[in-house]
């Protein structure tokens, strides 16, 4: 990996049934690729962890969904309304360029950036053997994908909320988010602003880095 010669193999796509009748597409890397991704994560995670928001709970060391639920229960006593958010097809639609810019916000390590780009662009292999190119998305099921998701959403949502609405609390577990509101009026107010939010503010933040 240090020489830059390692080329990630295709990622096997497996469809898992969901409770709503749909399917969740998982990308299963090979064992060697899991080891390579674990090496990159071991380097990158200590760099980004100190910067992550205190109310981000998904796929982080020493944190769990139960911690997020416990925090939300504490806040229910203060705020009577909650806005429940789920980013639709988040992993399947991640913009590769923005993900790489987000990672560069924290490190300029050439081998880490090189392999993250290769993992994002690795072909998808269907169970029947057909190979498909991938231009967007990160495979759910990989070692590095959850960390990339947290890096992206830290800059795209967590910091945006902290800078623009510091009095409004939330808990985020990967792409599932609960926002606490004092009133129904405040809920509709913040909902409208989140719905109006697009990638331009993230792009501006990353461009100015």
Give a topology summary.
Elements: E1 11-17, E2 23-28, H1 31-48, H2 65-76, E3 81-86, H3 96-104, H4 110-121, E4 124-125, E5 131-132, H5 145-164, E6 170-173, E7 176-181, H6 184-196, H7 200-207
Helix pairs in contact: 3-4, 3-5
Walk me through this protein's architecture.
This protein has 209 residues and is of the alpha+beta class. It is built from seven helices and seven strands. The protein has a four-stranded mixed β-sheet, with no helix packed on it. A three-stranded antiparallel β-sheet has the order 3-7-6. A hairpin with a 5-residue loop joins strand 1 and strand 2. It is globular. The model has no long low-confidence stretch (mean pLDDT 90).
Compose a concise summary of this entry.
The chain is an alpha+beta fold and 209 residues long. 44% of the residues lie in helices and 16% in strands. It starts with 10 loop residues before the first strand and ends with a helix.
């Amino acid at each position: 990996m240090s020489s830059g010669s390692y080329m990630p193999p295709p990622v096997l796509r497996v469809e898992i049934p969901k409770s709503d009748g749909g399917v969740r597409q998982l990308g299963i890397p090979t064992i060697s690729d899991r080891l390579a991704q674990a090496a990159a994560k071991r380097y990158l995670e200590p760099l980004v962890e100190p910067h992550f928001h205190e109310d981000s709970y998904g796929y982080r060391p020493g944190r769990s969904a139960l911690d997020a639920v416990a925090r939300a229960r504490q806040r229910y006593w203060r705020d009577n309304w909650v806005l429940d958010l789920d980013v639709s097809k988040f992993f399947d639609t991640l913009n590769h360029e923005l993900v790489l810019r987000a990672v560069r916000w924290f490190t300029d390590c050439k081998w880490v950036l090189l392999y993250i780009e290769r993992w994002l662009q690795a072909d998808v292999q269907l169970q029947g053997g057909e190979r498909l190119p991938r231009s967007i998305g990160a495979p759910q099921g990989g070692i590095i994908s959850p960390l990339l998701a947290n890096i992206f959403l830290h800059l795209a949502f967590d910091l945006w909320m902290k800078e623009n609405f510091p009095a409004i609390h939330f808990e985020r577990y990967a792409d599932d988010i609960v926002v606490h509101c004092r009133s129904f009026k405040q809920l509709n107010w913040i909902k409208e602003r989140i719905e109006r939010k697009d990638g331009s503010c993230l792009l501006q933040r990353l461009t100015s880095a």
